[in-house]
Write a structure and sequence with these properties.
alpha+beta; five-stranded mixed sheet; three-stranded antiparallel sheet; 14 strands; about 30% helix; globular
Amino acid sequence: MPNTETFTMDELLREHGSLLYDYCLTELSPADAELAACGALVSAIHHADQPREDEQSRAWLYALARAHRTAQANPASVGSWTRPDSTADPLLAEALMALPGLHREVLDLAVRHHLTHPEIALIFDVGAVEIERLATVAADQLETWVAAVTAARGDGCSELGGQVSETADAPARRRRVRISRHISQCPTCQNAPRTTTAGELLDHLPIMATPATMTGRLAGVEPLAPEEGWRADGFPPQTHALAETLADLPSPALTSNSPPASEDEFRAWERNGDDFWARREDESDPEARLSLRPFLPAIRVSVLIAGAVACVLGAGAGWSALQPERPSPAVPVAAPATITLVPSDVPPNALLDEPPPVPPPSRRPRSPAPSKKRTPMPAPKNSPSKARSQIDPATGGSRADTNSGPQEPPAWPARDPSASSTRRPLPRPAPPTADLTLASLHLGAGRSGRVTLSCTGTCHITSGRGTSGIVVDGDRITVSAPTSTPACDDITESGTATITWSGTSTGDGRTSEGTTRSDGILTLPVSWTIEADKGTWIPTGSVAYAGDHEGRWSNCP
C-alpha cells in the first residue's frame, strides 16, 4: 500500500472508509463508530509525516481507528455484529459476543479485515508470535461454542439445551456467560462435532458499507493530539490489557492429556514475574518482537529440574566425603609355578595380546608331523631349574628356552583371500510420497491463497495449472475473477488446481542407503465468492405514507 502522504481525503474515504467504520462498529453504536472512523481519516492526513515504513500504512490506519474508538467509547455506546447483507446464522453474533473482547478483536482483524499477524502486532505493540497464539485460541473458542450450541439444539448435551432454549426474560449477557461457563466444563460440549471453521463462519459476515453521512462529519472531528506520547515507530499509543490476556492463555508446553491445574495454582508462581512483561527498549523494532513468553513455563520447569539434580549430586558427594576410608584387603602373592605347554595345532602367537608378526614372503609354514613325536631336550645343568618352555614351530613339540642366541619367530599360516567376508549392500530407501495439507482451498472474498506440500522425503512443487481462471505459481494459488457482479445474492464459483511435484528420499545408512527419486501429480479443489452488487435502492411505496420502506434494488428482479 502506498504511503498515506500521497493520499487525499477522498481517496482514503473511498479505499478505507468502510473498513474502518466496520471495525469501529463492532464496539460502538453506529453514530459513534462513524465519528471514530472520521477521526481516524482526519488523523491520517494530519499526522502523515509520522516516521513509519510504507508496508506499515494499513496497520497504522487501524491503529488510528482504534485510538479514536477508545476515546469515543462510553457505557451507552454498544457495538453490533449484525449486517444488512449478512448470510450468517444469528448464532454467530451470540458466539462472537461470548468471546473475551481482545480475543474477538484480534480474530476479526485477522479473518474479516485480512490483516497479517505482524500488522496486528504493530497495532498492539506486542510480538507476532503472541498474536498468532491469541488468534488460534480465539478461533478454537468460537468453533467450540458454535458446535456445542448447535449440537444442543438437536441430540447433544441436554443440560446445555435447556439453557439455550431459555426465554427472553433473562438478559442476553447473563445467558451467554452461563452457556460459556457450561461449555468450558462439559466434556460432551467440548467434543461436539465441528462442521465449519472460524474463517468460514466469518466469511458470511460482510464488511459494513460507508454511511452516506460520513462525508459531512469529517469537518467536525479533531485529529489525535501529538502530545499524547506517540511511539518511536510513528504509531499512536493504545490502551489494552493484552499482556494479561496472553498470560491467561494455556501454555503451549501443556498437552491435552495433561490434567489441567487450577487457576490459583497455575498463576501463583507467575505472579512473581511481573518485570518480565516490562517494555523493552527495542520493542518498537518489528524484528525484535520475537518473544520467549510462550516458553516461560517450560524454561522455569527445566531450571527446577536442574536444581533438584544438582542438590542430589551434591548430597551424594557430601555423604561420600564423610565416610571413613576402608583399608584395601591384602592380596596374597602366589608362589611361582611351572607352566608346561602341551603341543597343539594352534599357533603360539594366537594366545598373545599383541598381533602376530608378519612372516617373510619367502618363507612358507611347514605343517607339523603328527606321527613323529619328539621328546623335549633336558635342560643344561647350569641353567635354571624352572626353564620357560616354548613350542617348536618345526615339530610342534616343546623346547627349552636357552640363552644360546636369538630365536626365529614362528611362522603364521597364510590367509586365503577368498575366505575374507564382504559387506552386503543395503537396499535403497522407499520412494518419497507427497500430499497437500488441505483437502480443498476456499478463498472466500479473497483471490489468493497458499498451499503446503507434505512429503516423506524432500519434495518441491515443479509446475502447476488450473481451470476457471486459476493460476498456480509455486505454492500460491491465484484466481482471476471479479470481486463483485450485479446480482441479489453472492455467487460461489469453483475450479481445480493441478500441481506437479518432484522429490527424493535418502537412506539412513543403517537400514537403507543411496537416494530414490519420485514425482507425481496432485489435484486441489478451489472455490471463491463473488459478492453481489445489488445496485441502488428504488422506492416503490406510497409517497404520502411517511416512513414507508417498500422498494427494491435496481439489480434485483
